[in-house]
Amino acid sequence: MRDNNLAIEVDDVSVSFRHSSSSLMSFKKNTFDALSNISIAVQAGSRLGIVGESGSGKTTLAKTILGLYQPATGTIGFNHGVQQNKDIQFIFQDPLAALNPRMTVEQLITEPLDYLGVKPDHATRTKKLKTIMEQVGLDYSQRQRYAHEFSGGQCQRIGIARAMITEPKILICDEPVSALDVSVRAQIISLLKEFQQRLDLTLIFIAHDLSLVRYISDELIVLYQGKLMEMGPSEEIFSHARHPYTQALISAEPRPDPDTERQRHYAEYGEIETADTKLDGCVYAGRCTYAQSRCHIEAPKLQQVGETVQVACFFPLEAVTSV
Ligand SMILES: Nc1ncnc2c1ncn2[C@@H]1O[C@H](COP(=O)(O)OP(=O)(O)O)[C@@H](O)[C@H]1O
Ligand code: SF4
Ligand SMILES: [Mg+2]
């Protein structure tokens, strides 16, 4: 890793999956790239937002950083202090589904200490449990209960406690509040922000609700069909999106249900194309109101626009100046 202030360096990473619909008789290539040539540098202690509609590759990127998927090409590097199997924790979208129904809250929260080989003595374990339950706003007297006895918001607090008890350096949150009632979303986000600031965590926050990402991230990347469309400081992008897709995401009404969004996406645009049927142009050209003939024959590369933003578009949008 070139820069010691970086916690994570994703360098030209592509991830391919086998197409479930492909048959042995098919002459088409039966893999597709869920991520293509992604390069991002995440500063230690910073908060990176990842946005993009369903199927854009957000979870694949998170899981590849976690080491759950192997990149087909490219590398993922960590700062010297970070070990991929120990210092990175993950918070899932559906808190109840992520928690073993046969384990008590106490077992759920302290289990990661065991599989990371921390093995604290009984007194230290109890102290850690008590402290973390208080920090996430759970009542210590409820430690012998099971996850199904708690609300969605409380289950996500258990998920956060489980992640934070190991004192990770990097926390990846994959749509952590999408499955929760709107009324508790802000509380969970505030809790994550509190941990991030107190512990100087490197936070990766994935969402399709842009208003949440704006609140919690310093830097932002925008993915579309596994490709980077735009990246730079969040406020800069929110106040002036240069990529037509980012502009569309920001101006769109939030869609409440990611599954509906996925179905809508496939109904409207079909499955992601396999590599051999794909045209060479910009991946967004079919939906872009600004597309010109060049966009259909050539793929734009990420280019620097202004001092801090990079955009994969031949015709980045100008700032709207008020008169
Ligand atoms: N394990 C997998 N096997 C095959 N295809 C997958 C797998 N995981 C994700 N995909 C596909 O890769 C694409 C990106 O998925 P994903 O990373 O889950 O997107 P997002 O999190 O942005 O909704 C989708 O087309 C999805 O169907
Ligand atoms: S390159 Fe062309 S099609 Fe692609 S986003 Fe820019 S203007 Fe639209
Ligand atoms: Mg996802």
Ligands present: adenosine-5'-diphosphate, iron/sulfur cluster, magnesium ion
Strand order of the largest sheet: 5-6-7-3-8-9-11-10
**DSSP helix fraction:** 25-40%
Q: Please give the alpha-carbon distance between the first and last residues.
A: 46 Å
Assign the structural class, choosing from mainly alpha, mainly beta, alpha/beta, alpha+beta, or little secondary structure.
alpha/beta
Helical segment count: 9
Note the beta-strand portion: 15-25%
Pick out its properties.
323 residues, alpha/beta, Rossmann fold, 8-stranded mixed β-sheet, 3-stranded antiparallel β-sheet, 9 helices, 30% helix, 22% strand, elongated, binds adenosine-5'-diphosphate, binds iron/sulfur cluster, binds magnesium ion
Description:
The protein has 323 residues and is of the alpha/beta class. It has a domain at 6-87 and 168-311: 3-Layer(aba) Sandwich (Rossmann fold), CATH 3.40.50. Helix content is 30%, strand content 22%. It has 9 helices and 11 strands. The strands form 2 sheets. An 8-stranded mixed beta sheet has the order 5-6-7-3-8-9-11-10, sandwiched between helices. A 3-stranded antiparallel beta sheet has the order 2-1-4, with helices on one face. α5 (182-199) links the parallel β6 (170-174) and β7. α2 (105-115) packs parallel to α4 (152-164), α3 (122-135) crosses α4 and α4 (152-164) runs parallel beside α5. Residues 268-277 have low confidence and may be disordered. Adenosine-5'-diphosphate binds at residues 17, 34, 52, 54-60, 272.
